[in-house]
């Protein structure tokens, strides 16, 4: 185990923080509750963003940008929405500073009070739907498929890098449709896109489901979600897609003329994922030696480290590495040659292991003589000797093997941590001793759901789509239940 990293078995929370900091993903900032995303972490987010952005555009969505500030009155127009976000809002009350006449630096100018306070966006439904009112008049203007890449602020009291910060980066899609059926289909389509991205690119198996009424997004008719399981047995909501019905259209008077020239309110969706996905990657895959990143979105897929004595050996290795890099880049591989002279090879090995680079190639003078290279894979910490002939093709296949292996490992863990229970005693025992998802009957009432959360801190993570219908009795109330739902303690 790396001396710099706390073991998962010792303190999982500290292990996570150690990896984020020492793996070069993020750092604490001078602003309470906010983080600095470092180049390695931002490159990872950029790769995730670029894949998702293409998936959105391939399904007909366009990017736009809306203001950071939202008039306070906008939040008052949708009752459930303001109730859901009121306690997390940062509020701008003044627009100017001035020098303190008493020499105390700068102070807020009391004469510069805004007529109406502005909310720093916690989410953009209100400002966007106020805009859509001017963009939508006819059925010919629908569907309107807009996505925004932005930052948002939710004033969290207890923060953790990537998982829960006062400011974070995300994308938020906001679409308008002529019928409820179209809007629901959009909601489900975006959920499928999130699930495909998580599984195909993040190597993160997820369960698609719908939230219970009390866990829905504020102002939504239905919230669909993807739920993932971390290595400590806690769940993490990795993405949400909301069917908003006509709630925001009615709040902001967004109507359209249908084909019969009758006025109707439009139907809405919103959907989003955030930089919390970076935290999910860390917790789902990494080990006590550092990060383990899936090749498809790792900022760097291959690093080559030379091992040599003297300039003559270095020149021979350089010439061969340049050939290898050309082949790897031609195959679409993100590769780096670290021939810097400021650290020994062993230090470099540990550094790239910490940062989660999927494949490391070490090449020395003797390797050249034997026409081989030492290739190490980060996921299994194994080494093998591969021929330099056709090396790029072997590396391409190795990266695919690593990607699949990471998914299979995470899936096996998830599947072994979905536990059906039939009594309250079993429920508590599994939560405390095993963790993971607990499949249990629930009577469907918010009162029982709240009581379970109060007693155990476990919440209903989702009601899986296409859930098996089976008669049973609620684990707490004993009342009839038609299906099991998935409970877990969560981030």
Supply database-style keywords:
12-stranded mixed beta sheet; 491 residues; single chain; 14 helices
Please state the CA-atom Rg, rounded to the nearest Å. 26 Å
Q: How large a portion of the residues is in β-strands, by DSSP E?
A: 25-35%
Helix content: 25-40%
Note the main sheet: 12 strands, mixed
Structure description:
- There is one protein chain.
- By secondary structure, the protein is an alpha+beta fold.
- It has helices at residues 12-22, 39-58, 72-75, 79-85, 125-135, 180-200, 247-251, 276-285, 310-330, 345-354, 365-370, 391-416, 424-433, 446-456; strands spanning 26-28, 35-37, 62-63, 69-71, 90-94, 97-99, 106-108, 113-120, 144-153, 167-177, 207-210, 222-229, 235-245, 255-257, 263-265, 267-274, 302-307, 335-337, 359-364, 372-377, 382-387, 418-420, 437-441, 459-464, 469-473, 480-488.
- The strands form six sheets. Strands 3, 9, 10, 11, 12, 13, 16, 22, 23, 24, 25 and 26 form a twelve-stranded mixed sheet that branches.
- Helix 2 (39-58) packs across helix 6 (180-200).
- The longest helix has 26 residues, at 391-416.
- It is globular.
- The model has no long low-confidence stretch (mean pLDDT 96).
